């Protein structure tokens, strides 16, 4: 009888342990499925383009290697192109930012859904956020390692060091963001290692309101800056429409190849917007190791490949009035930032009620 009572008393603990194990196993599977969905989407797109090509350069194995390489590149992994005209391996490290949207969104959603679903199954009413984050990340990164091993003997293998940083770090941070969002975005776990004064300041409602206003203003300023950069790229492409068309038609002679070039150009549009925003800010952007394009001058002689987006690169030599006009982009971003800050600092125009004090801005 005593033995039966002992087993009965232990059953809640056993149930709790099994529930936690089931939660972590479910999170692991979600991470694996998220990675598989992203890989599958890119693979389907590449295979459709390969099938529609009139004269493919390789078989289905080569197309699969391209798909796996693109998927790894979307996570920040550096690829090595072994088949080059010079015979020397060449790195492929520029990540098409638009290509990262789907894989990272799937990883974010896996972390968020793993915490939201099944919350009542945990005996304590909550589950370990760290455990869920680790389980989802482990499932996702297991697929990353498998794909990297598959692509090791292809023409686009991944650099091993880049699989740890930034690829693995990016995955863990995105999954952690999803877990954090599902819990209501609490600041306590984020600031657990911060000094006590910082934690006390964040606990004040007025400080949190000011921090949220600052983040909104910063987000609006960055959005304006990137939007202005995209506008600069669009204007430059229209200005050089002839060169863009010639480059587009030269790279591909049939419709399937032109679709590939178009999709690749679209994937690099966010990159071009960032480069244009940096150009308007003044520092500019580098082309190769000895060339820098700024509004004041464009020096060096970079060996640029034939690509439609590169037609937007300014001409070499000193900058002209058209180049100097790009400084309007950061000025507009500054005005937007000031506008959002002023609206938060003085909620009611002409009234001191709710207005920030001296030094608040």
Molecular structure report:
- The protein has helices spanning 2-52, 60-74, 101-116, 129-150, 160-182, 196-203, 205-239, 241-251, 255-267, 269-281, 321-324, 328-345; strands at 79-81, 90-92, 285-286, 292-293, 297-299, 317-318.
- With 361 residues, the chain is mostly helical.
- Strand 1 (79-81) and strand 2 form a beta hairpin.
- It has a four-stranded antiparallel β-sheet. Strands 1-2 form a two-stranded antiparallel sheet.
- It contains twelve helices and six strands.
- The radius of gyration is 26 Å and the shape is flat.
- The protein folds into two domains: 2-186, no CATH class; 205-329, no CATH class.
- The model is unreliable at 1-16 and 118-126 (pLDDT under 50).
- It is 63% helix and 4% strand.
- The longest helix is centred in the N-terminal third of the chain and has 51 residues, at 2-52.
Structure characteristics:
361 residues; 12 helices; mainly alpha; four-stranded antiparallel sheet; 4% strand; 6 strands; 63% helix; 2 domains
| C-alpha Rg (nearest Å) | 26 Å
pLDDT averaged over residues: 85
Number of domains: 2
Biggest sheet, spatial arrangement of strands: 3-4-5-6
Helix percentage: 55-70%
Strand content: under 5%
What is the end-to-end distance?
71 Å
Low-confidence stretches: 1-16, 118-126
- Taken in chain order, the helices and strands follow as HHEEHHHHHHHHEEEEHH
Shape: flat
The secondary structure category is mainly alpha
Number of H- or I-type helical stretches: 12
Q: Tell me the total number of β-strands.
A: 6
Largest sheet: 4 strands, antiparallel
